[in-house]
Write a structure and sequence with these properties.
about 290 residues, 5-stranded mixed β-sheet, 4-stranded antiparallel β-sheet, mainly beta, Neuraminidase, 1 helix, globular
Length: about 290
Amino acid sequence: MTPLIAKPLTQLPDALHHTGEPSAWARMTRPGQPMHSFLEAAFYDATGNLWLSDVPYGRVFRISPQGKWEVVHQIDGEPHAMRITDNGTHLAVDYRHGLITLTGQSSFAPHPAGADTAFLGLSDMTIGPDGAVWFTDSGRSSLSDPTGRVYRLQDGQLRQVLDCVPYANGIAVSPDNAWVYVAATRANQVWKFATRLPDAGPPMVGSYLQLSGGLGPDGLACNAHGWLAVAQAQAGRAYVFDALGDRIAEVRLPRGLWTTSVTFHPDDPLRLIIVDAQFGAVFDCALPQPRT
């Protein structure tokens, strides 16, 4: 399979580069390296704006369809991902503060459902077709300490679904709301389990994809065809698989290795958006038509 090459879409403007001392998160994640940003968690809102989280410097950006970047939130925290719920709430998973609501340009509040939970360090989130919020809690888990977690927030109730993932990271729900996909980054795998959970205890989980190279899968996203896109961290590429797990495409970035996030364009399920945190850049790529 010949790799596809993504094209540049937009890039963090120089005026928005962090120029001060690196944050504690930046020093932990990339010791000794300068870091003007670390972009994660791409998603589109209902009006076609692209949103990105800048983890080390507490920022959430909104990028207009015309390519204008705006800092909508900047908090004393480490927001790994944010989503807008049906009622307009800006719900975020923050590595330092846990599950929070972004209440203003520089303010936030703990979400009541997670206020009494001792999280390891939250990683990523998604909202399923039924409105359930699924999010991951990686901390510093790995193969030597496989204690990463997955949570579901539904109807105001928080449930711990898994507690055995070697760095639970990206998460996505299939468009028919049947399956949850979780990036087990340090195992270089994507796991899969049913959204219909047992009354008690963990669900049965399978290894859906076994990948290789780089650090492992980071952000995940599904499109209307049921395809799963995977950002392969520290490999400068993304993969796309069909619902059976067959590879449809390998997409390489023209520059940058810190592939963190993927999303599909809301107007075109065959247009894949890929985020590189090394240069603060966003790329896109046209995918092949589905097989008939």
